[in-house]
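Quick start: what a row looks like.
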Amino acid sequence: DANSKSSRTKNRSEQNPPRRTRRGRPRRARSVGGRDPFSPCAKATLEAIRPYCAPSTHRTITRGLKVIGSAFKELRKKGKVSTINPRKFTQADIEEFFQWMKERETKTGVGLRPATQANYLAFLAQMLLICENPVMNRMRALHYVRFPQKVSPEIRTLEQTTVEELRAKLANMPDWYGEVARFAVAMYAYTGLRRSELRKARLQDLDISKWRILVSHPKGETRYASAGTAPILQPARQTVLDFLKARERYLTENGVGECEPLVPRIYKDGRVDYWTDGMWGSMKDKAQKHAGIPFRVQYLRATFGQMCKDRGASIESVSKALRHRTTRTTELYYARIRSEDAFRELEEAFAEKP
């Protein structure tokens, strides 16, 4: 009855008295979600997308949502937005965030790059969708609202002469690190493999009779990159043979029999396994320091694509070798016909025939 219910409530309050402030007044209970309603929405978004994206992508979105949350808090302090609760964002609030991205100071000047703006808006739109706030969908339906678009990035490559200079300077890099560095640079530049695809390759994936390598661990583990094989072009083949001999010596000298990893690593406890990503990065840094030529693995992959295109290979063939699902990805990030080559083809097409 009412009396017993009142008695139970009184007993609970006596057992768990409200916390008091330093001045002795009872502390006011915090509302659900605390004083920061943005964080619970961001957390719910990250949990919802976790099964559908790679860990690296998840970390990128996590960092992006933190930046977006900080931006809205800054705008709220300045009185430019009405709330920091994503469920209550209005078109005016989103427009203020647009302006914040355009005016933010960066190392290269004022304003975030269009690609970064587009990424932040994509992260924000996903969060609002999960929070059941349709404001950005309504904005996209308005013909006068212009969202930032990703522009075609500059393809960063190395000249083939630079690649060969890099390989020549690594020729006297000592020990197992040197053997691995020479093999890695040659394979990345003349197969187009991604960083982890070579690091995780198995010995059985290598076919030196056909000069192919099976990509057993593609990027995203087949979620968004195709598996398949990659060609090993002529300039890398002797390096591959030299590496296989060095690999056999490395295992024999350490009293280890044959093992699965194409590029094995013998740890201090005697265990033989694949290189960790951190150790692989350390090897790359040592190679870069030894040669005195800065490079990135992604540049070597793009270099492979551009070298093939420059030598007359079709964009379809280059895309197939890079294991892209469409040629659009290839042309956008890895290989394009150079302007002079394109203009020469057009001139030849319209040249007067004798």
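That is the whole record. The chain has 15 helices and seven strands. Residues 28-33 have pLDDT under 50 and may be disordered.
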